[in-house]
User: Fold this.
Amino acid sequence: MTIDRSALALASPPPGGWWRRTAALLSLLPALLLGGCGYNDFQRLDEQVKAAWSEVLNQYQRRADLIPNIVNTVRGEANFEQETLTRVVQARARATGIQATPELINNPEAFAKFQAAQGELTSALSRLMVVVEQYPNLKANQGFQDLRVQLEGTENRITVARNRYIKAVADYNVLARSFPTNLTAMVFGYQVKPSFTVQNEAQISTPPVVNFDAKPGAAPAASAAAPAAPASK
Assistant:
């Protein structure tokens, strides 16, 4: 059998020829496509959302850890309104009873329940602090005042952490909804993430109405009901 060397020479690509450049470009094509369609941006923003959410959870846990000391201090005051204390304890139990995992931010229904529980706890604590104003001994108690300052500082940290989370989620969701990156989201399963709602913010920021004419130990005229939880979608 005779081998046509000239045919083999034509069939074999010359070293260093155009085919090497083409092969190199083809090998880079997937990376170029993924970068151009927002894949890398999804990775970056997803990590930012997770980091922001972790900080929110840290600050909520910090608040939950303060509450037992606050409740024990207030409980020592004679004739203090027990219903208010009970609502704080119960609200804390419901808030800490929800397993706040990183996956929670990918589950709108679970996120709404967590959000409602934290809002209820915020409302209960707000009412407690208002009722305390009717008890001079507590207002003069240095230990309680120290706890109160810590609680106020924690509430401020919660606000900052929540705002950072809202911003991170907004950036991520814009990417997930915009064209053509929304196609990448569909292909790789990047779902829109839930955020804290305006409705919830309005509810938990409304202070309780208290009748300051009530005598210490008497139930204030305000309703002790916690704000209604936002309806889950």
